[in-house]
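User: Please predict the structure of the protein below. I'd like the answer in structure-token form so I can feed it into my own downstream comparison script.

Assistant: Understood. Taking the following sequence of 184 residues as input:
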Amino acid sequence: MISLDICSNLDEDDNIQNGDFLAFCDIDAVPSSREKKVSLENLRRLEDSFSATNNFSGTIITLIADEANGISVGSGVAISRVTAGKVVLARSIVSSTKVPCIGIAVTAANKANDPIDILLMGVAEYSSYPFTSSDVGKQVFLSTTAGTFSVTAPSAFGQQIQVVGVVLGADKMLFNPSYDYINV
């Protein structure tokens, strides 16, 4: 049986930062082999206020783009139904192979097969989002225009409705997409 204790370089009132660590300590082991560190590098803390626009905070992963013309920062993306494991611009059209939206591009991909960071859930603040302060609290929908969002749900025959988040402020949303969508 191993007796474990949790160690850290943090004090009780410290904020977690990159470079901090947690460690599991075998209190019965010899001191030189007692500590097993778990690094917190590349930690991304969920923020709800930013000092500048075009910021993304939350759960972010790296995938591969599958768009010949690239994917811009702030665009909604979907997993490609043609090339497994790659992402394409999301779009709410029934005939499209680009629904549902699973994330937002945090970095740009200039061409197909470029790596791209994707926000899966979190806060997205982007200067090109069409939200205003009067939209706060409204649902955000995937738009019929590839990669874009709107506070107005698609309503024409052949379109799909997918809620992807809630407006937090001008140009800012809490992104938490539903993977369900309704055909109009």
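That's the full token string. The first strand starts at residue 4 and ends at 8.
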